[in-house]
Every structure is written in structure tokens, then in C-alpha cells.
Specification:
Its EC number is 2.4.2.4. Keywords: Glycosyltransferase, Transferase. It catalyses: thymidine + phosphate = 2-deoxy-alpha-D-ribose 1-phosphate + thymine. With 504 residues, the chain is an alpha/beta fold. It has three domains: 93 residues, Barwin-like endoglucanases, CATH 2.40.40.20; 207 residues, Nucleoside phosphorylase/phosphoribosyltransferase catalytic domain (Pyrimidine Nucleoside Phosphorylase, Chain A, domain 2, 3-Layer(aba) Sandwich); 81 residues, Alpha-Beta Complex (Aldehyde Oxidoreductase, domain 3), CATH 3.90.1170. Helix content is 40%, strand content 20%. It is built from 18 helices and 18 strands. The strands form five sheets. A six-stranded mixed β-barrel has the order 1-5-2-4-3-6. A hairpin with a 2-residue loop joins strand 3 and strand 4. Helix 7 crosses helix 14, helix 9 runs antiparallel to helix 16 and helix 14 crosses helix 15.
Length: 504
């Protein structure tokens, strides 16, 4: 912050009030607080807190006078942690100085473009906590209505990759990623297990769910620890060849995790942000080779083959400018992958494939083998055209399962995923052949049931494209931890139209 604000503001004592706001720092002051009057602070003012060398930008709210003593300021959990978590600490509060990079955001909203310097300053301010969620929403929206071009996307990727820590390896590493938008597409644990069993090094860091009912980190957390620090990741990868960690526990492209939190609330994932999100994390993680899965379908994130090819071209072109060899695969995104949607349920599907169970979902197995084959070939573990055979061998002989279990043990131990407390079957109201499956409605059903916040929540599919269904046959089973969430999902299923469409 500007030096002229160093000693400005009034002094109050901190009080932890147990307010959970996801990641946005919130502070509460009395409505009759003389500091508010003297400093001209009103509800939703942006304020700057300083305590013991720490700075936090926060949003101010005012509460009932009896909530706080006259000399106290209430801190949300996010603000409390950022300030160091000390009760009754002296904190200086003042107006937040203007965030100059917001001028660039406003310019982009009104038709301008953002250069490297603009985006570097925006990302710097975002990581420093100077952007409120409202300002973050403005930036994300500015790149959605009129998408970022290649130069803006390259500059944003560079700024995001350079804003946090970097992993450097003494050996070549490879990575795999899906652009998302397809429920149940939990191929990553299988691919990592196969690649590591083949002798490749694949330090996989994954995000939690953005707009979906589960991300790889959410699913993996149902069986092992995923919030690993950099030293632990190094040890796991050096010992086992791979890891499956949550990237948010690290400072690899920290701006990405902030953007993801707001994108999740807006339920959008603009293409420029998507590319920068994926590539910045992979660049920061030290990957030099990358296999990308791009599901394509009418209700997937990417709607057409043409759009998929355009995204693949942009991804590979921008990755190459950072010295990363990217290989993109367009896959079938017309319906969910596997039989389940939700963290624990998806992990059950993964384990069924790794364990070679007779009822393991064949489509999840086949998709994972296709991606693993590409990883093995791009990583140099096998020659061109031999990847599928080698991947299948490592899966069928149990090598992939043993490596997956070893990775979990190295990360903190393995446990079986838990089953939800409540279940309810939703049946077909008529007869016919399954003509379409709406990925977005299926995802919403799983989220309304509680996923991913309740890891065992979600749904299990019983009908897929081409299946013949009679009236009263089960279409899917909802899983929830509370009756309220189960009823919420059932209400949506009854009012939102068919998530699974049958031919007449």
C-alpha cells in the first residue's frame, strides 16, 4: 500500500465472531461506532486492516450494538486467519486506498484491451487481497462477454504463473488435465496410477469443483489427504512417481484459486480464464508435457466439434509459447462418464476400475485408457501407437492399483469412501429409449443434493444413452446427508424438466 496510509486510521481491538464467508474477509463494527463516523465508514465500505506487520483488505458491515464492545471490531474467519488469529489484538483500520488496476478493468468493460502490464498489476492486486468479490466479478465478467484474445490470454497466463511459487524438477514431468464440464469424468486418478506405474513422473495438482459437483481434489479427499505442501509433493513424486494433490494448498498460481471461488458463484468459466487457469497451474508445477481432455457435447462446457478444435488450437499454441508440449484429445461429452456424480460416488467408480471389478463402468475405463495411452506416448514411456496396449496391461495386471494405493499411503494413508445416509430413487414417468442426458441438469441435481460440500452426496445413474426404459424403471438414485438437501434435489427434479429424455 501507499506509504502515506501507513499511520492513518483508528485503533480497535479484534474479536473473532465465527462468521464464515468462504474466502472473502469481512469485518463488523457497531452501528454507533465513533470510528465509523470519524472515518466516514458505511456498510460495504472497503477498509484496510493493519496488525503486527500484516495487511488485510476487507468489506465492512455494521451490526447490533450489543454484538461488540465500543472499542472492538468483529472479524470473519477469513479476516481472522489473514490477520494471524490473535484475540484482542490492536488493529488499525482505515479506508482502503484506491486499487489503481481497477481502472484497467473498467477500460476492458468498455471495449478496451488489457496488456501485459495491466494484467500483471491486476493479478498482483488480486493475490494481495486488494480486490473485493464484486471487483473480482467485474474482472471475470469483463473477459466473458467479450472473450480475451490470444495475447491477453497469454499475458494473463504469464501473470498468474509468475505470481506464486514454482516447482522445478531435476527430471522431466508430464501432466494431464480435463477442461471440465462433464459430470463423473474422474479419469485422472486412473491415468496418474497407470503413468506412475509405467515409470513416468506425474505430479498432479488439481482444483476443487468450480461449477461441477466434484473436482479431482474433492474426489481424492474421500480416500486420502490432498492438502500437501511442496516438500511433501516432492517426496511423494520422488518415491512413487506421481501424486494427486489439491493445488489450493500450495501457492502455485494463487490467483487462480481466487478466481475459481468467484467463478463458482457466478456459474461461469470463460475460455480465456479457463486456458490461463489450466496452463498457469501446469507451468508453475513444472510440467513440460501436457495431455488435455476436451469433452464435447450439447450440454458440456464445449458444445461443438468446431469449438473443441478452436480451444485445442488455442491451448496448444499458448502452451508452446511457454515451452510446454500440449496434446489435446476431443472426447464424447454427450452424457456423464461412469455411473456416479459426486466426490465419494465418483471415487467408488475409480476404485471399481482400478480393482478390475466386473461391474466397473466400462466408459470410464475406456476413456481413462485412451488418455493414459496419450500420456505414455507423449511422455516417452512407449513408442507411438503402443500406448493403449501398455496402459491396458498395467491396469489389468494390478500394477496401476498397487501404485495408486502406494501414492495414497505416501500422501497420508488410504480409506474407503463413505456412503451417504439418505437415498431416493427417481423413476421414469413413461417408457421409451434414452435419447438425451442433460449434463447441466444432472450436475445441478448432484449439487442440490449437497455435492461437493457433502462429499458423499450426489447421484448414481441407472439409465444411459440408448437404453430402453419402461415406466417406473429407475433413472437415477439421489444420495444426500440431510433430508433438506434430498428434498431440495427432488423438488428440482420435479420442476426443472427431464434430466434424462426418453423418445416418445
Amino acid at each position: 500500500m501507499d506509504d502515506r496510509h501507513e499511520q492513518s486510521g483508528a485503533i480497535l481491538r479484534t474479536k473473532r465472531i465465527g462468521l464464515h464467508t468462504q474466502r472473502e474477509p469481512i469485518v463488523v463494527m457497531r452501528s454507533d461506532c465513533p470510528v465509523c463516523r470519524s472515518e466516514g465508514l458505511a456498510p460495504r465500505s472497503q477498509v484496510l486492516l493493519k496488525a503486527d506487520g500484516r495487511e488485510v483488505a476487507a468489506i465492512l458491515f455494521q451490526g447490533a450494538d450489543e454484538l461488540l464492545a465500543p472499542n472492538e471490531i468483529g472479524l470473519s474467519e477469513a479476516a481472522w486467519e489473514l490477520l494471524g488469529g490473535i484475540e484482542h489484538e490492536r488493529v488499525r483500520i482505515s479506508h482502503l486506498p484506491p486499487v489503481e488496476s481497477m481502472g484497467s478493468v473498467r477500460g476492458r468493460i468498455f471495449g478496451g484491451s488489457l496488456g501485459q502490464t495491466d494484467l500483471a498489476r491486476i493479478v498482483e492486486d488480486v493475490v494481495a487481497g486488494r480486490y473485493s468479490d464484486v471487483q473480482l466479478s467485474a474482472f471475470i465478467t469483463a473477459g466473458t462477454a467479450v472473450p480475451f484474445d490470444d495475447e491477453e490470454t497469454f499475458a494473463l497466463t504469464a501473470a498468474m504463473a509468475g505470481a506464486g511459487d514454482r516447482l522445478d524438477w531435476e527430471f522431466d514431468v508430464i501432466d494431464k488435465h480435463s477442461v471440465g464440464g462433464l459430470p463423473g469424468n474422474r479419469t485422472t486418478p486412473i491415468v496418474v496410477a497407470i503413468a506412475a506405474a509405467a515409470g513416468l513422473r506425474i505430479p498432479k495438482t488439481s482444483s476443487r469443483a468450480i461449477t461441477s459437483p466434484a473436482g479431482t481434489a474433492d474426489a481424492m479427499e474421500t480416500v486420502t489427504k490432498v492438502d500437501l505442501d511442496l516438500d511433501t509433493i516432492r517426496k511423494v513424486v520422488e518415491a512413487e512417481g506421481g501424486c494427486l494433490a489439491w493445488g489450493g494448498a500450495l501457492r502455485l498460481s494463487p490467483a487462480d484459486d481466487i478466481f475459481i471461488g468467484v467463478e463458482r458463484q457466478l456459474d461461469i468459466d470463460p475460455e480465456g480464464q479457463l486456458i490461463a487457469s489450466v496452463l498457469s497451474k501446469k507451468i508453475a508445477a513444472g510440467a513440460k508435457r501436457l495431455v488435455l481432455d476436451i469433452p464435447v457435447g450439447p450440454t458440456a462446457k464445449v458444445r461443438s466439434q468446431a469449438a473443441g478444435h478452436d480451444l485445442a488450437k488455442r491451448m496448444t499454441g499458448i502452451a508452446a509459447r511457454f515451452g510446454v508440449a500440449a496434446h489435446c484429445l476431443l472426447s464424447d461429452g454427450r452424457q456423464p462418464v461412469g455411473r456416479s456424480v459426486g466426490p465419494a460416488l465418483e471415487m467408488m467408480d475409480v476404485l471399481a476400475v482400478l480393482r478390475g471389478e466386473s461391474d466397473a463402468p466400462a466408459d470410464l475405463r475406456d476413456r481413462a485408457l485412451t488418455l493414459a495411452a496419450a500420456v505414455l506416448e507423449l511422455g516417452g514411456a512407449v513408442g507411438r501407437g503402443r500406448g493403449n496396449e501398455r496402459a491396458r496391461q498395467l491396469l489389468d495386471d494390478g500394477s496401476a492399483l498397487r501404485r495408486f494405493e502406494s501414492i495414497c499411503r505416501a500422501q497420508g494413508g488410504f480409506r474407503e469412501p463413505k456412503v451417504a445416509r439418505l437415498h431416493r430413487i427417481v423413476t421414469a414417468s413413461g417408457s421409451g429409449t434414452v435419447q438425451a442426458v442433460d449434463n447441466r441438469k444432472i450436475a445441478r441435481l448432484a449439487k442440490f443434493a449437497g455435492a461437493p460440500d457433502s462429499p458423499s452426496a450426489g447421484l448414481r445413474l441407472h439409465a444411459r444413452l440408448g437404453d430402453s426404459v419402461n415406466r417406473g424403471d429407475p433413472l437415477f438414485t439421489l444420495h444426500a446427508e440431510t433430508a433438506a438437501e434430498l428434498n431440495y434435489a427432488l423438488d428440482y427434479a420435479a420442476s426443472a424438466g427431464d434430466a434424462i429424455t426418453l423418445s416418445k
